[in-house]
């Protein structure tokens, strides 16, 4: 056990302390931070909190009501009335307002409003004045009717087999979350699985193993290498998952539309349950390719085939949305290579029978264990076969020494 730990520690620290690994590890968080920063900067640039004015020629705003404050919006732009265009124009030229609106005399019939400004008016000012007009259009109606007209409809789609299952306008995260988790999985597998593949092939090519196995058994070397390199990938997976989720919950209280996003669906725990096993499965298969191949280029070409099935749910996403209980969708949920994305994606739009969930996750974990065993066996049988390709059938036929 001690020898396994020594190999494990060596493989793990060797990979995580490399500059290349650190750069790859920080890539996704930096992209998230940069994207968020650019998004915030774009919002800030488009906002202008200076007052705006209006000239009412329709009489609608003769006794105006203010915009109702809601939990989802904070009003920052002051809206000032002007008696005529001349006074509004003078205020604009003096820089007291960023622009003014002229509500035409036939506004109730045509809806015509003219904006006069020297420079681009802030997006928040446009939104606030639009809400100001809506509030005054419905001010004389029943408060409940006025609220419904201004807020609009809240359409929900309910599953036929379970009326408690629903999807609304704010539930777009149901689909996005499983797909994003699948992308993170593929990125982690392609990078960390590649490390394991490359390490196996390189040590076969430079014959380092001939020296190492003089002081450690092949089984101990195999176990330490595979566990160490898989732990590198799981570390990367954890960081890539934790950083975006930490940012989400960190900024959620300050961004109104994020407050309406619900992450309590079954698709969340299904994604989390499938992710580790899926990573071990694909990474182990890539390691097996490295142990079987005779050179790095050949191993990389073969290993690329193992990540291809992970893309299939993205190609057929329309089918998963519209027919989540079709035979193909169910089959992709049960097939271990497509289950990590398909199963939670289906869960976002339908109620998946318990037996399908148990069978899908069971097959995934059994396949991961089997792939890990195959990788270890291929590593042990092929580590000393230089220039000779280990046949796949030998993994099952040949007896270990």
Question: TL;DR?
Answer:
The mean pLDDT is about 75. It is built from 17 helices and six strands.
- Average pLDDT across residues? 76
Q: SSE order in H/E notation?
A: HHEEHEHEHHEEHHHHHHHHHHH
Alpha carbon gyration radius: 30 Å
Sheet with the most strands, sense and barrel status: 4 strands, mixed
Distance between the termini: 20 Å
The SS-based structural class is alpha/beta
Beta strands, count: 6
- Counting H and I runs of at least 4 residues, what is the number of helices? 17
- Low-pLDDT stretches are none
Shape: elongated
| Strand content range | 5-15%
Task: Explain the layout of strands and helices.
Blueprint: H1 2-16, H2 19-46, E1 52-56, E2 79-82, H3 85-93, E3 100-103, H4 107-110, E4 113-116, H5 123-137, H6 143-151, E5 157-159, E6 162-167, H7 173-205, H8 208-212, H9 218-251, H10 256-259, H11 266-292, H12 296-315, H13 317-322, H14 327-334, H15 339-347, H16 354-382, H17 394-397
Parallel strand pairs: 1-2, 1-3
Antiparallel strand pairs: 3-4, 5-6
């Amino acid at each position: 056990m001690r020898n396994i730990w020594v190999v494990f520690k060596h493989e793990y620290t060797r990979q995580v302390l490399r500059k290349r690994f650190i750069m790859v590890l920080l890539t996704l968080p930096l992209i998230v931070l940069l994207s968020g920063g650019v998004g915030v900067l774009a919002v800030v640039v488009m906002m202008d909190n200076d007052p705006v004015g209006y000239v009412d020629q329709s009489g609608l705003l003769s006794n105006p009501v203010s915009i109702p404050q809601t939990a989802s919006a904070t009003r920052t732009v002051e809206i000032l009335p002007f008696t005529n265009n001349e006074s509004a124009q003078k205020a604009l030229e003096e820089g007291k307002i960023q622009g003014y609106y002229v509500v035409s005399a036939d506004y109730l019939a045509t809806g015509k409003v003219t904006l006069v400004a020297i420079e681009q008016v802030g997006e928040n000012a446009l939104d606030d004045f639009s809400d100001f007009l809506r509030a005054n259009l419905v001010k004389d109606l029943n408060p409940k009717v006025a609220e419904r007209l201004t807020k609009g409809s809240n359409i929900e789609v309910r599953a036929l087999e379970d009326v408690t299952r629903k999807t609304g306008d704010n539930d777009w995260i149901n689909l996005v979350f499983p797909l994003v988790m699948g992308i993170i999985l593929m990125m982690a597998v392609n990078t960390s699985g590649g490390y394991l593949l490359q390490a196996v092939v390189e040590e076969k090519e430079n014959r380092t193993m001939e020296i190492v196995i003089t002081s450690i058994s092949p089984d101990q070397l195999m176990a330490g290498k595979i566990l160490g390199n898989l732990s590198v990938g799981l570390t990367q997976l954890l960081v890539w998952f934790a950083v975006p989720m930490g940012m989400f919950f960190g900024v959620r209280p300050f961004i109104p539309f994020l407050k309406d996003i619900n992450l309590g669906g079954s698709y969340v725990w299904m994604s989390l349950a499938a992710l580790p096993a899926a990573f071990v499965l694909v990474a182990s298969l890539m390691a097996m390719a490295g142990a079987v191949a005779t050179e790095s280029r050949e191993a990389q070409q073969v290993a690329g085939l193992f990540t291809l099935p992970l893309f299939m749910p993205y190609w057929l996403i329309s089918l998963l949305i519209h027919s989540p209980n079709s035979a193909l969708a169910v089959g992709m949920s049960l097939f271990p290579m497509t289950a990590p994305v398909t199963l939670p994606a289906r869960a976002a739009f339908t109620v998946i029978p318990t037996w399908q969930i148990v069978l899908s996750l069971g097959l995934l974990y059994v396949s991961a264990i089997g792939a890990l065993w195959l990788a270890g066996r291929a590593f042990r049988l092929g580590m000393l076969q230089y220039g000779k390709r280990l046949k796949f059938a030998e993994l099952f036929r040949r007896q270990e020494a």
